[in-house]
């Protein structure tokens, strides 16, 4: 299973990529989409919404189950990936490209608490 080393992770199976401008892009891991199966619906947060770390930020439904998507860090939503509303299957075909939302971190220290690829691999082993 692919677990990109350049991303950070949380045990609830979201990945986080810190961008050059300090924003963070968030999606779900390959492991999560494999557990869910074929994705049929994605609910995204509103741009401008604010979340604390571990708040529910959206949801995802598959032919097998429904699951919440959590914000791994606190901050304000800057953008959402509208392509997922019309093509939710992108989460299955490219989980590390099919991001859910971008957030402006309000507490950058939270980034230090995220899991490395190696730590996340241990979580799902």
Automatic annotation (TrEMBL):
Domain of life of the organism encoding this protein: Bacteria
Cofactors (names): (R)-lipoate
Cofactor detail note: Binds 1 lipoyl cofactor covalently.
Domain spans labelled Lipoyl-binding: 23-104
Could you tell me which residues carry N6-lipoyllysine?
Answer: 64
Q: Which UniProt keywords apply?
A: Lipoyl
Q: Which GO terms describe its biological process?
A: glycine decarboxylation via glycine cleavage system; protein lipoylation
A Pfam entry, by short name: GCV_H
Q: Which GO cellular component terms are attached?
A: cytosol; glycine cleavage complex
**NCBIfam families, alphabetized:** gcvH (TIGR00527), PRK01202.1 (NF002270)
HAMAP family registered for this protein in UniProt: GcvH (MF_00272)
Q: How does it assemble?
A: The glycine cleavage system is composed of four proteins: P, T, L and H.
Function according to Swiss-Prot or TrEMBL: The glycine cleavage system catalyzes the degradation of glycine. The H protein shuttles the methylamine group of glycine from the P protein to the T protein.
Q: What does the similarity note say?
A: Belongs to the GcvH family.
Q: What is this protein called?
A: Glycine cleavage system H protein
| Source species of the chain | Alysiella crassa
Phylogenetic classification of the source organism = Bacteria, Pseudomonadati, Pseudomonadota, Betaproteobacteria, Neisseriales
Q: Which gene encodes it?
A: gcvH
């Amino acid at each position: 299973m692919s677990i990109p080393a350049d991303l950070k992770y949380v045990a609830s199976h979201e990945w986080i990529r810190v961008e050059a401008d300090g924003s963070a892009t968030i999606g779900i891991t390959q492991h999560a989409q494999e557990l869910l199966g074929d994705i049929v619906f994605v609910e995204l947060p509103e741009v401008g919404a604010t979340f604390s770390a571990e708040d529910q930020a959206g949801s995802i439904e598959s032919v097998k189950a429904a699951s919440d998507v959590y914000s791994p860090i606190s901050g304000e939503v800057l953008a959402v990936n509208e392509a997922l509303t019309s093509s939710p299957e992108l989460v299955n075909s490219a989980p590390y490209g099919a991001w859910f939302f971008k957030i402006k971190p309000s507490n950058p220290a939270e980034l230090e608490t995220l899991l490395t690829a190696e730590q996340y691999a241990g979580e799902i082993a």
